[in-house]
Structures
1.
Amino acid sequence: MALNVIMLGPPGAGKGTQAERFAHGRGIPKISTGEILRRAVEEGTEIGVRVKATMDRGELVNDELISGIVRERLEKADARSGFILDGFPRTVAQAEALDLMIGDRGSLLVIDIVVPETELVRRLASRMICADCGANAGEAAEPGLALADANTHPDHCRRCGGQLVQRADDTNGVVRERLKVYHCQTEPLVEYYRRRPTFRSVDGAQSPDNVAADLATAVDSAHLVAMAPGGGVPR
Ligand code: ADP
């Protein structure tokens, strides 16, 4: 049965890094709405032009627009056997749209990455990404490489060698706005999903390797429940 994974958790929880590792390890695509939108802004597409100011303010883009992007992406062949979504859904309206997209594709496995607020602010203020390929500086070039290896070439991306820069929306005021938006609009999703038998929480305030191990265990246990007769219902 398809491995349909979504990750909840505040900005800075490590969702992107963990999703990348998990996707690579399981041979499924990682679909990051933040990356898709940042690429659209960089390329100056029609969507990019529409969302730039909203993203720069740290606010969420329109539910229908982002749900449409995800719907199209999930229809591609590589997502048939599963996917891990990073950054979607972020509102209850998006979660409802996703339930419709999933339809009879199996159950959603929902992983909530939990990190205390003080740790989030610290992480976001020092986060760097690659100007060329968009990789997070903390992401290992190959799964299994320790985060500490990032210190060997601190100015350059280990995936493509590009220059590392601070994300436009990682500056102080915008970080606070993104955390506020998270509490108001995205945290209610935990309640939306919590009662499902395929919901799991993972402690995100550990080393990346330990979070990855706990994430794998959580997904596998939720997947087992989903495969049991009637297990994944209600989705
Ligand atoms: P973070 O690292 O803060 O979790 P992302 O990289 O996922 O942020 O997203 C960056 C920005 O892109 C968000 O602040 C928001 O403006 C926009 N965005 C990404 N995903 C969504 C979504 N599902 N709904 C609305 N806006 C989104």
2.
Amino acid sequence: MAIDPASSGDQALLQVSALRVSFATADGELQAVRAVDFSVRSGEILAIVGESGSGKTQLAMALMGLLAENGSASGSAMFQGHDLLGCGQKQMNRLRGSKLAMIFQDPESTLNPYMSIGRQMSEVLEQHRNMPHKQAWLVAEEMLHQVCIDDAHERMRQFPYELSGGMLQRIIIAMALLCQPALLIADEPTTALDVTVQADINRLMLDLRERYQTAIILITHDLGMVAGLADKVLVMYAGQTMEYAAVADLYQRPEHPYSRGLLRAIPQSFSNKLAALQPIPGNPPNPMQLPSGCPFRDRCEYAFADCTATPLLRPARHGGLIACHLDRLPE
Ligand code: SF4
């Protein structure tokens, strides 16, 4: 599958161009995201992958209009005729919860501990769909069935502290989907859950994409998680795109040293060639003190003289894009 963010705008549900996110700090401007481009179509799942500090969460927060007060975003993010970066607060509030939804790693921080599940869910429909309370309650209960929650009638009357982490994450997904958003952003949705619940939640996301054609942006540090889930992957490092490719291409023949490093760090390898678990040595750079040239230079086993110049994003052999001076990644 050829990936060209610049030309896919016509069919894209979301077209992000030259997105930058920065924060004013006491030590100066911190650039968390540096000119990132990508697109997502209806029913497509895009994974944005990188270590912590790569800028992926701030990218999502910028799209949702949820940056901290000292943060600002530039570029454009066209979504159904709206530029999400230029929307006023009122318009963003209308879009959030109706056409756009986000789920976070920790469901407990999203839910109000003092309100029953049913009340929190039905309020979403009352506010965004002007639904009468009784009808909203029934629709919310039906949505709990759809995300495979047993005893939905009983769960509606319970409070968050009475339910397990896996159950709460399902409820958060159900809540996010109540208004059938066109785009769901899931930020590390299963990181806090055990492996079997993670698999259930992943199946649930695939099922929901099939059923509602919801586009999903899945943000994760774990490239292993996206193997059976995403259609394409954007690999970020130090706020920049390192590689952008169809998921199968990235797993079979990663072209960027950082992507290969992330694949080698997955406990169950997807390729015999990458059988041994090898964490990437070193740590991501301080965003206030990036090395000149390629930001991955200090950790890259293939760095050479050209890498002191910044690599531009260019077409890769697999049809995607990479930012690397290497002509070909050695076997
Ligand atoms: Fe490594 Fe150089 Fe490619 Fe950066 S540009 S990933 S340092 S080979």
3.
Amino acid sequence: MARPIVKNRTILETILTIENLNKKYGKVHAVKNVSFEIKKGNVYGILGPNGSGKSTTLGIILNVVNKTSGEYRWFDGKTDTHQALKKVGAIIERPNFYPYMTAEENLKLVCDIKGIHYDKVEEKLQVVGLLERKDSQFRTFSLGMKQRLAIASALLNDPEILILDEPTNGLDPQGIRQIRDIIKHIASLGTTILLASHLLDEVEKVCSHVVVLRKGEILYSGSVHEIMANEGFFELQSDNNAELKTLLQNHDAVDSIEEEDGKIYVYLKSPFASEDLNRYLFQKGIILQHLVKRKHSLEEQFLQLTNHQ
Ligand code: ADP
Ligand code: MG
């Protein structure tokens, strides 16, 4: 059942390369010079508010939306899109199956169409936690179960990459949780994943890499870990804020300082432990009344990114 391991490379294989992609719908420039690369085994999130060009980008690489300019290459770049898409599993619309057929019957039908062995049906129903419900008619499923069946269907041909557009939209908290757990499970089995979402916590919880889009433009692209791994900032108060600012302005670890409502915010560019800062200031004759070290969450950083442009 497992596919043979063909190559064992130390460098991650490229699944998809996107270069300077543009899409214009008349006057609307929906995707602007977007470039990024998808490597095997990672989980990528395209994160951005509604209308930022996520679905358009997915539509282009899946060959259902025509690009205006730019390039995208699947795998080694030698495979044509039609062939390449046979190794891609994608759900970009609301799942739709035959309502009066069971989960199993619906998936067997997909197997017939795509020339896939029926063995895969139970295997994939298991992956999405629907094996016990295989004999239930599709129409009896909750939205979350319908979405899970769609994921099972997209996995039938053991794709190299699974692409999902807003996979948890419209689901209740339990359904959201189940879908996220399933995505993480599929990733742990080695399938590369690309998902579009307007939900920060979704990307933070599920993805290893993120492309932040706003109005069709990339604001950030890189690992989720790195966007989180900033040095943070101090929130300080003393009886001599003016002197405090002067002292810290010249410190090597300090990037910038802001003052608001009597509090001094000290943004760091390199590590600076609270106890070291406290000792340093004490030795210079400054007694702190207030000292808190904070770090921006992905959400705050995302809001900063999107506000500052
Ligand atoms: P997202 O998926 O991030 O919400 P979309 O890719 O759907 O964003 O849309 C990006 C922009 O392109 C929006 O301004 C949207 O109104 C516009 N757009 C999307 N599809 C079409 C279309 N078929 N015709 C005209 N404009 C479109
Ligand atoms: Mg969309």
4.
Amino acid sequence: MPLPIPRLGIISALHQEQAGLIDNMAQPQSVTRAMRDYVSGQLWGIDSVCVLSRIGKTAAAATAATLIERFGVTHIVFTGVAGSVDAGVAVGDIVIADALVQHDMNAAPLFPRFEVPLLGQALFSSDRHLSDWLFEAAGRFVAEDVDKMVAETDRELFRLHRPRVHRGLIGSGDEFIHGPQRRVELREAFPQLLAVEMEGAAVAQVCFEFGVPFAVIRTISDGADEAAPRDFMQFVERVASRYSFGIVRRLCGLG
Ligand code: ADE
């Protein structure tokens, strides 16, 4: 039975995080809207719309809203990279969000810290079914594809072991985390936080408001530490693109 996803929106921040997907689309059609190219077509049998949001929460929110309102997607997956803030989550691992929080939201003392004002919540849960399917897809990618898709030299360069697939809390903010102080502050605020990035929780809020199921999957590019800026760029170029492509291909093939 095909996956019950009538029209899938796939967002990434950077083109490297979506490399290969559009090349594999059947009958791709591109429409430019508000400075972004939305490419619609069939991805391994699933009607899909791919788009690059660029970096940050505003960019991601605008993109998600346009996907829903203008392009009629029924589900959204955000795929990209993140920094790890948990000792058990290594570079090359995969994190699927159970929930997301905007870690830079702070309207205190008017509203509790981290709560989205007037919405009454800080944490946004991702869709269970979509996240389960992504988890299964990521598992198959790790078991069967990753060794073939990531060059051995790159696996050595980044000291990649067999990736583990984690599920848990992801934090998003308009901030690239690259040092111990912010890492510690974030972990104190959210002891269960696994990874940080700059878009997911904004997409989560938009999807929550529209009632559209969504999921976020991230490959860990760096340790959100001093080495993060260097590790991030290299990893995105050489590794992350293969992960996103491989996992989305497995997701579409689940049905
Ligand atoms: N995306 C990837 N690494 C990140 C980091 N360290 N901080 C924020 N977003 C990221």
